[in-house]
User: Which sequence fits this backbone?
C-alpha cells in the first residue's frame, strides 16, 4: 500500500498493512508554510528540521484547505489592521441594511489570535444581522485542487465546509450563545436553519466541482456544542439533523466526511455515528479527552475511523524517549485493527518553535513511521 491507500483503507474500515500515521496540517503545500513550487519547505526556519523528518520518513500528511468564496456578504465586509504594542489588531466591519456590525480580533506576537468583540452583542445587533440577504456564495476550488495535485499519494486533503450551528455560534460571544440556546432556543434554531439553507447550496456547489477527486470533507463547528459546553440533548437538537443531511450529500457525491472535535466526546459518540461521518478527529487522550482509545474503538465498532491521540501538549513537554513510548503504547492498542490513524491533535502554531517541541516532533514522526 502507498500512503494514501493506507489512509483511505483505515477511513473506509478496510484492512491496512500497518498502522497509518500522518501529520496534522503540517505540510509544504500551502502559503501557511510558504511552500516552494517544487514542494520543498521554505517556511519559518525553526520548522525546517521537522519538515525534513516528515519528508524523509514518508509520513502521511493532512493539508486542511477551504473553498474560496465570493458573495454579497463579502462585498459588504471590509477590514483594517493595525498594531497596538506588539499585538496585531484586525477591525472588521460588516455593512447591513440596518447599520454596521463590527468584530475586533487581536493576535499577540508569536501567539494564536482571539476575538475580543463579537459581531452580535445585543438584540439590536441581531436584527441588523438578520436584515442581511441570505444569498449563498459562489465557490472556487482551484486552490484546493492544486494542493490535492501537489500532495499526490502523500496523504489526504481535508476540504472544509461550514457547520450551520457554528455559523450561528461564532456570531456571538460564546457565553451569550450558550445562554440563548436555553432562553431563546426557537430563535437559535431559526437562525441555524437559515444558515443551513445557505450552506447546503454552497456545499452542493463544492461537490459539483470534485468529480474525479477523493477529498475528505471536514467541518470543525460541532466541537463547541459538546459537553461540558452544551448538553448532549442540545447537541442532538442543534447539530445532528443539519450535519446528517450535509453528510448524506457528501456521501451521495462519492466523497468521505469527517468532523473535527477536540475535547470530551464520550457522551456524544453515538450522535456522531448517527450523523454518519466516516472519521472523527482529533481524538484526545484524557484529561483533555474523556475516553481511552481502546474504549473508543470498541464503542464505535468499525462505524467511524478515529484520528489522533498524540496530544499536542505532550510534544512541548515530553522528555526524550517519551514520545516514542506513547507511539508504541498506541500501536499496541491498535495492533490487528483498522479504523484508526495516528496524528497529533493540533497544527504547530508557534512562529518560532521551542527546541524541545522540534526534537519531540521528530521523535514522534520517526517512531510512527517505523
Assistant:
Amino acid at each position: 500500500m502507498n500512503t494514501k491507500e493506507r489512509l483511505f483503507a483505515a477511513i473506509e474500515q478496510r484492512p491496512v498493512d500497518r498502522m497509518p500515521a500522518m501529520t496534522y496540517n503540517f505540510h509544504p503545500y500551502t502559503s501557511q508554510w510558504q511552500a516552494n513550487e517544487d514542494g520543498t519547505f521554505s517556511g519559518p526556519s525553526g520548522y525546517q528540521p521537522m519538515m525534513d523528518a516528515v519528508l524523509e520518513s514518508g509520513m502521511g500528511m493532512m493539508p486542511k484547505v477551504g473553498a474560496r468564496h465570493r458573495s454579497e456578504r463579502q462585498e459588504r465586509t471590509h477590514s483594517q489592521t493595525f498594531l497596538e504594542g506588539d499585538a496585531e489588531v484586525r477591525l472588521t466591519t460588516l455593512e447591513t441594511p440596518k447599520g454596521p456590525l463590527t468584530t475586533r480580533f487581536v493576535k499577540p506576537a508569536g501567539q494564536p489570535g482571539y476575538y475580543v468583540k463579537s459581531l452580535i452583542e445585543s438584540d439590536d445587533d441581531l436584527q441588523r444581522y438578520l436584515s442581511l440577504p441570505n444569498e449563498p456564495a459562489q465557490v472556487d476550488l482551484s486552490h484546493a485542487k492544486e494542493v490535492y495535485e501537489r500532495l499526490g499519494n502523500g496523504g489526504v486533503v481535508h476540504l472544509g465546509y461550514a457547520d450551520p450551528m457554528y455559523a450561528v455560534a461564532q456570531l456571538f460571544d460564546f457565553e451569550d450563545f450558550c445562554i440563548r440556546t436555553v432562553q431563546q432556543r426557537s430563535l437559535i434554531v431559526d437562525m441555524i436553519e437559515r444558515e443551513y439553507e445557505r450552506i447546503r447550496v454552497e456545499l452542493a456547489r463544492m461537490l459539483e466541482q470534485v468529480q474525479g477527486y477523493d477529498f475528505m470533507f471536514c467541518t470543525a463547528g460541532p466541537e463547541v456544542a459538546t459537553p461540558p459546553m452544551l448538553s448532549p440533548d442540545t447537541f442532538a437538537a442543534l447539530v445532528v439533523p443539519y450535519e446528517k443531511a450535509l453528510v448524506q450529500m457528501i456521501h451521495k457525491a462519492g466523497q468521505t466526511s469527517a468532523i473535527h472535535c477536540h475535547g470530551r466526546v464520550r457522551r456524544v459518540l453515538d450522535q456522531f455515528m448517527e450523523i454518519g461521518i466516516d472519521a472523527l478527529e482529533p481524538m484526545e487522550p484524557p484529561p483533555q479527552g474523556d475516553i481511552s482509545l481502546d474504549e473508543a474503538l470498541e464503542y464505535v465498532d468499525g462505524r467511524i475511523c478515529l484520528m489522533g491521540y498524540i496530544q499536542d501538549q505532550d510534544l512541548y513537554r515530553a522528555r526524550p524517549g517519551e514520545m516514542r513510548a506513547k507511539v508504541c503504547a498506541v500501536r499496541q492498542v491498535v495492533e490487528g485493527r483498522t479504523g484508526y490513524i495516528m496524528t497529533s491533535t493540533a497544527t504547530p502554531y508557534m512562529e518560532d518553535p521551542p527546541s524541545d517541541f522540534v526534537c519531540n516532533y521528530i521523535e514522534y514522526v520517526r517512531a510512527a513511521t517505523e
Remarks:
- The chain has two domains: 3-71+118-369, 72-117.
- Residues 58 and 154 are 8 Å apart (CA to CA).
- The two ends are 15 Å apart (CA to CA).
